[in-house]
Specification:
With 437 residues, this protein is of the alpha/beta class. The protein contains twelve helices and 18 strands. It folds into two domains: 4-242, 3-Layer(aba) Sandwich (Rossmann fold); 248-431, 3-Layer(aba) Sandwich (Rossmann fold), CATH 3.40.50. The protein starts with a strand and ends in a 6-residue tail after the last helix. Residues 51-193, 264-412 form the Glutamine amidotransferase domain.
Length: 437
């Protein structure tokens, strides 16, 4: 399935950008694009906008910088605000850069205005709030303390929307980067710019009489023996826009999460197929009957969300229930199955849980000789990694285990999850024992 992305361009192409790169469209695509994708751009500054009915076909959106103020009420800016509201309702991925970063803050209820410490045109350094960045998020496995980025703006976000999470700041500006849920990532700097583009902008702004030669000299000095962390910014932005499922570590070590699952549950002579539902990949309903069992994996997304792919997955789960197919739900999958059967799910009331934990088996609910085997343990150790939970079970469900969130088995250095017992339990469910309770 071809991925499609849309770029809202709020800036005209400079002669340098046209001559060197073919225009700013190509600058963005060189940073964010991959082979086999379709990238469309609309020059919103000139009144070019997509039809609302066409927004659904895009997997992600980018709003560029602009020399215009995000707090203005010109027609094209107000129309772009309306589109952002629509994309928010659709829970589409939107990357906001500079002007786009400010405009999203405005739409979501924040405040935008003139930069209190003055304009910035330079290579700047921003500080990452590491505690605000969840592990395995857009940053990857290692979150840096700071990142260098090209800065080119005279306005700033003065006050974040209530729903926003601050991800970075600097000595000049309190809001350098923020996110809102899973669908907005906003960056004050320009991840797409390089030193040559900045130098061209400085020379043009100086020629227009808007800055002094001393200002230019100071700005160009920031580029001496320094470069923007463009590759890291590329990784962050692409991970956000494209919802990369497999972490760098998992891809390098196991070849992807698919292989992690198959190594745990698979056996010789079996066929295992993968559908990346987060990317809109689903089997045909007519093909469901040919499978003997199904697994729904974890996800960074909320099982109570209404993204199109989540709603479609719920529909398939209901179909599998009608067919009485075996379905193993893990983390997000555990919550999705609870949702479609009439239970309640939401944010974990005692906060996110990440670590090796011990869960207590409700032995009175477990039938001897069922999925657990002949001997049911009192407890099992398992890796926990979630921020949501099942609040209320469906009426038809039987509780098999519970835990105290903070009942740690031990540190990861001292203990391991009971992976073999979990493997036996899950394989017995999917392939063998039919009676559990």
């Amino acid at each position: 399935m071809e991925k499609k992305y849309l770029l809202f361009l709020g800036v005209p192409d400079s002669e340098f950008a046209k001559k060197t790169y073919g225009g700013y469209h190509n600058v963005f695509v060189s940073l964010l694009g991959d082979e086999g994708e379709q990238w469309d751009s609309y020059r919103v500054l000139d009144g070019e906008f997509p039809d609302e009915k066409d927004l659904e076909k895009y997997d992600g959106f980018v709003i560029s910088g602009s020399s215009h103020d995000a707090f203005q009420d010109t027609d094209w800016i107000l129309k772009l605000c309306d589109i952002i509201k629509k994309l928010d309702e659709m829970k589409k991925k939107v990357l906001g850069v500079c002007f786009g970063h400010q405009l999203i803050a405005r739409v979501k209820g924040g405040k935008v205005g003139r930069a209190r410490k003055g304009p910035e045109l330079c290579l700047g350094n921003i500080t990452i709030l590491k505690d605000a960045v969840a592990p395995e998020n857009y940053f990857g496995e290692e979150v840096p303390t700071s990142l260098r980025i090209i800065k080119c703006h005279q306005d700033e976000v003065l006050e974040l929307p209530e729903s926003a999470k601050l991800l970075a700041y600097s000595s000049m500006y309190e809001v350098e980067m923020y996110s809102i849920e899973d669908n907005f990532l906003c960056i004050q700097g320009h991840p797409e710019y390089n030193r040559d583009i900045l130098i061209d902008i400085l020379d043009r702004v100086l020629a227009g009489g808007h800055i002094t030669e001393d200002f230019v000299k100071t700005s160009k000095a920031t580029l001496e023996n320094n470069e923007a962390d463009r590759q890291f910014w590329q990784k962050i932005c692409k991970n956000f826009l494209k919802a990369t499922c497999d972490s760098t570590f998992v891809k390098k070590t196991y070849g992807g999460y698919f292989n992690v699952f198959v190594s745990t549950f698979g056996e010789e002579g079996e066929q295992w197929d993968l559908f990346r539902v987060i990317d809109g990949e689903f089997p045909e309903e007519k093909d469901l009957d040919k499978y003997d069992g199904f697994i729904i994996s974890g996800s960074l997304h909320d099982a109570f969300g209404d993204d199109d792919w989540i709603i479609k997955l719920c529909s398939i789960c209901q179909k599998l229930d009608d067919m009485k197919k075996k379905v193993l739900g893990i983390c997000f999958g555990h919550q999705i199955l609870n949702r479609i059967k009439g239970g309640k799910i939401g944010r974990a009331r005692r906060g996110a849980d990440m670590g090796l934990r011990s869960i207590t088996i409700a032995k009175d609910s477990v039938k001897p000789g069922g999925y657990f085997g002949d001997k049911t343990p009192n407890s099992l150790a398992i890796i926990k990694c979630h921020q949501d939970e099942v609040w209320e079970l469906p009426e038809s469900a039987t509780l098999l285990a519970y835990s105290d969130k903070y009942n740690a088995k031990a540190t990861m250095e001292e203990a391991e999850p009971d992976r073999k017992q979990w493997q036996t339990l899950c394989k017995n469910f999917l392939k063998g024992k039919t009676d559990q309770i």
